[in-house]
Amino acid sequence: MKINDRNPKTKPKFEDERTGFNAAIAVAALKGRLLEEWIKPNSAVYSRDYLDRAGDEAASLAWSTGFPLLIFPILFEEKARNARIQAFRQNEIKAKSKAWTAALHRTNPSRA
User: Tell me: the pLDDT tens digits for 12-68?
Assistant: First the structure.
């Protein structure tokens, strides 16, 4: 038995009994659509992993509010922008590291 199963008042409600609307499914679908929007135009700039992580973080934060579907797109956009910056920096670091390693091997072939 999970902790949330013991007390129904603390268990989060994902589905409306009257309408059958499932907020968890709606947030996951929205995350998928937003990921695709961000990946298509920027696929060469950063990887899907960065965006996927940004989506997970945004969803976690959105669920802590009372209105996850309303808040999620805003949080996702902010997190995705930060992910793009982080991925760009990471790619720059990788490129510089490769250049430095290549220069080191040219100047000192015994270190190879």
Answer: 556 655 555 688 888 899 999 998 888 876 565 557 888 899 999 999 999 898 888
Spatial separation of the C-alpha atoms in residues 13 and 34, rounded to whole Å:
24
Lookup result for tokens 């298509």: 40
CA distance from start to end of the chain? 57
Minimum mean pLDDT range among 2-6, 39-43, 61-65, 102-106 = 2-6
Residues 6 or more apart in contact with residue 76 via CB below 8 angstroms: 31, 34, 54, 55, 58, 59
Burial bucket for residue 13 (CB in 10 Å: 0-12, 13-18, 19+)? exposed
